[in-house]
Amino acid sequence: MQIVAGKAVSSGIARGQIWCYRPAKSHVSPEPIDSPQQELAKLERACSTALIQLQALEDKVRAESGEETAQLFAAHQLMLLDDDFQQEIREAIGEQKLNAAWAVEQAGELFANQLAAMEDAYFQARAADVRDVSGRLVAILCGHQAPGLRQPDGEAILLADDLTPSETVQLDRQRVAGIVTRQGSANSHTAILARAMGIPALVGLDLAELPSAWDGLEAVIDGNSGRLCLTPDDETRRRYSKELEQQARQREILLTAKDEPAITRCGRRIALYANIGSAQELASALDNGAEGIGLFRSEFLYLGRQDLPGEEEQFAAYRAVAEGMNGKRVIIRTLDLGADKQTAALRLEKEENPALGCRAIRLCLSQPELLITQLRAILRASAWGRIAIMFPMVASLWEVRALKDLYQQCRQQLDAEGVPYRADIELGIMIETPAAALTGDLLAPEVDFFSIGTNDLTQYTLAVDRQNQALAPYGDPTHPALLRLIEQVCAHAHQHGIWVGVCGELAADLALSEYFIRLGVAELSVSPPGLLPLKKAIQQIIFK
Question: Which of 139, 147, 186, 273 is least surrounded, with the fewest CB atoms within 10 Å of its CB?
Fold first, then answer.
């Protein structure tokens, strides 16, 4: 038996055969070009393709691991479009007359090396992200549309020099039991993804190089102590078998709560809903005991495409979710594009500060045909289930009334056409701007419910860009200003007899769940993997 030390970055025990992963790389070399304009056009097309790929990865991670983890790929999109990065590439093409692939690779290495040389561990870890982004762009320019990841044949311990975030998120959890890398750090986005995916992982393995002779050997990862055990002896095998059995029992304990209600020990009931972005995620939501869908992100229909989805396409998507939930409430958030969510189909103008720009309902009110098409599709789908509608990024009373006018216009159209829909659809708004939180007493009489979007409410209240990981310490979820706003929202809602839900990342915070329940929040909506741990935590709450 051989034991190799590493740094544990994702806890748990994993057992399997070593699978040495050596990614295929696009080999590029400097080549003189005749037409810089043609090469710049190639770069533009490659950037567009990369953005589509990164948006798809962001949506995948959001569905599987939650909003906070998905922001890693939103950050990759910002890196791709960074002015300095783009300028470095364009100067190499335009002034040095070098091919785009070489220009991208050199720019990526330049910025990655600058980050790696910094003293701050956080910025050092971002070097891997820059290489991931530039590597994706190089692959596209070389004719490879997406960096792929070959999967092992059976349950394996993946051993690599390093893994990029893009590679990590593609791992099949049924085939990869654990991750071990020679490089990396606890601050890396790959480590964050491994934790979110529930895959035990070690980084910084004490090895000079990746040993090919290990391929196929039996191994155990101890993600608690930071050890890799190769060809374990019988005693070690028995000990880790017991720990694996204990892990499985803990999961079974969580699963026993799947069909139980979320009731505190003093009898207070709260509904637990799931956040999803497509009908394909319904199985995960239901497998984890979702009582409804608290946030259906409808913008997934618009992303990564050159054209807008029509009414029929949207109707089919919403109907599938409504039918799949079999009478349970499905809250569809209307289109929330703009800011960090861009689509080529709309060709939105570049804004200096997109987070404060024309996004969500501002976009829909400026182009009402977008919302009319969507509302008609949602109304039609309501005949197949219990659908509610939620409008995002509300700041003013006049916006709510304008949105309701468009909604009534759509109902009248369908009535005239003889198209059936449910007449009792609930209308709600997201409370994610301080303006909405402070005027809840004015907004509550207009709607049936509030849903507090804590991600944006935190960002706008504390003036912290949630895509800037360096500012993470400033985004304190227990900041008195944020908690006071949430308390005020709940008080105004209850004064006017409407219910309140929470659908941001704070809804999954086990420590804050008791606080929300004390405020009278009726529903918490989280990513599917967070439902069962949250339910077990709620069942242990005793109010004093």
Answer: 186
**What is the four-CA torsion angle of 28, 30, 35, 40, rounded to 10 degrees?**
50
Can 189 be counted among the known catalytic residues? Answer: yes
Same domain, 385 and 278: yes
- From 76, 189, 364, 492, the catalytic residue: 189
* The pair of three-digit structure tokens given for residue 161, joined into one six-digit string: 């020099």
Residue 137 has pLDDT above 90, yes or no: yes
Do 128 and 166 fall within a single domain? no
State whether 414 and 378 are in the same domain: yes
Whether the Cβ atoms of residue 8 and residue 223 lie closer than 8 Å to each other: yes
CA distance 6 to 344: 44
Q: Are 191 and 469 in contact (CB under 8 A)?
A: no
Q: Are 381 and 467 in a shared domain?
A: yes
Residue 368 near residue 306, CB atoms below 8 Å: no
Q: Identify the domain boundary among 233, 249, 268.
A: 233
pLDDT given for residue 89 in this prediction:
95
Q: Report pLDDT for 304.
A: 61
Nearest-angstrom CA–CA distance, 322 and 375: 15
Phi first, then psi: give them for residue 346, nearest 5 degrees: -100, -20
Give the CATH number of the domain where residue 102 resides: 1.10.274.10
CA distance 390 to 380: 16
Q: What angle do CA 280, 285, 289 make, to 5 degrees?
A: 155
Domain count, the chain: 3
Does 208 share its domain with 271? Answer: no
Q: Do residue 409 and residue 312 come from a single domain? A: yes
Q: Which domain CATH number covers 181? A: 3.50.30.10
Q: CA 378 to CA 364: how far, in whole Å?
A: 15
**Residue 47 a catalytic site member:** no
Name the CA radius of gyration of the chain, rounded. 25
Residue 179's domain comprises 2-23+149-233
CB proximity list for 96: less than 8 A, separation 6 or greater:
103
SS3 325: coil
Residue in this structure with the two tokens 């040389």, named with its chain if needed: 117
What gap in Å lies between CA 522 and CA 544, rounded to an integer? Answer: 20
Lowest mean pLDDT among 123-127, 222-226, 331-335, 538-542: 123-127
**The tokens of 427 are what?**
């209308």
Contacts of residue 330, Cβ cutoff 8 Å, sequence gap at least 6: 292, 293, 296, 321, 322, 385, 386, 387, 388
243 within domain boundaries: no
pLDDT in tens, 306-322: 788 899 999 999 999 99
Mean pLDDT of 184-213: 80
Characterize the bridge pairing of strands 269-276 and 523-526: parallel
Q: Measure the N-to-C terminal CA separation of the chain; round to a whole number of Å.
A: 53
Residue 283, amino acid: A
Question: Scanning the structure block, which residue is given the tokens 């504390």?
Answer: 462
State how far the alpha carbon of 274 is from the alpha carbons of 381, 424, 507, in Å. Answer: 19, 22, 11
Task: Work out the average pLDDT over 370-378.
Answer: 97
Does residue 447 lie within any of the structural domains? yes
- Name the residue among 42, 65, 30, 37 with its Cα closest to residue 527: 65
